[in-house]
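Technical note accompanying the year-one report. For the benefit of new consortium partners, we illustrate the data format agreed upon in the data management plan: each record pairs a sequence with a structure-token string. No post-processing was applied to the example shown here.
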Amino acid sequence: MDNFMSKLSQRINAQDTIKANLMADAAEKEQLKKQLAEYDSIMQSVRNLYLKQEENSEVFKELLAKLDAKTATEDKQPQLLAEMKEYISKSDEFTHKECVKVYRNVQALLDEQNKKLDADVAALKEQVESCKAPDLSEELAQLKRMEAKHNRTNKWLLWLAVLMSAANIAVVLCIYFGILPF
């Protein structure tokens, strides 16, 4: 019986520990969700910056085309026009490269966070499975065997008590009727 009680208390303590771990994991999961939302907002701002850069690039190209048309008719400052074209081209290339780098870095972070969240969810599922009611069928069977043994012992003791009572009554009657001298 003591063995059963110690097993039961160990399982209850383990369940409390598991519940505390689940709560800590849930808090960490919430923090990771917030961080993931923050990364998504950063990613959106990078996209907006890229779109804004594309708009500016188009405006520069239009201005360059106007300037090109104007200088073609006037044939003034061809070197300045070539430098502006080169500058805009370099600017477009640099901006594109930087946006791609930022996008890839943020994407890698998001992938890493998703993997971490998947691992956390798997761990939480395992812990939830371990929190299910323990299988006490063996202990219950042992208790039933002990109860049956106890009942058999009680029956024998009851019969023994009845026989002893009958023997006492028989002795008292023998003494009363004078069969046994006292």
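Partners are asked to follow this layout when depositing records. Residues 135-182 form one domain.
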